[in-house]
Amino acid sequence: MAKSQATFMKKQLEKNRQKKKEDKEQRKLERQQNGGGSDLESMMAYVNEFGEIVSTPPEKKV
Fold first, then answer.
1. What are the residue boundaries of the structural domains of the chain, listed by start?
2. Could you write out the DSSP letters of every residue in 10-58?
3. What 3-state class would DSSP assign to 5?
4. Mean pLDDT of 12-41
5. pTM reported for the whole predicted model
6. How does pLDDT run across 36-60, given as a tens digit for each residue?
């Protein structure tokens, strides 16, 4: 006798869930290894005298 279609679909759905879980874990590991980029200095933005957003701090005027 042939297996039912419902059993086949259950197995396929489980494979898809497992693959998604593995992909998510892989992306998590890549983020942990690359790290970096989240320090405060890289997130800072400054506004210059013209009201434009720039990444360099303003010069001190004496």
1. 1-31
2. HHHHHHHHHHHHHHHHHHHHHHHHH--S-SHHHH--EE-TTS-EESSPP
3. helix
4. 89
5. 0.50
6. 556 777 788 999 889 999 988 888 7
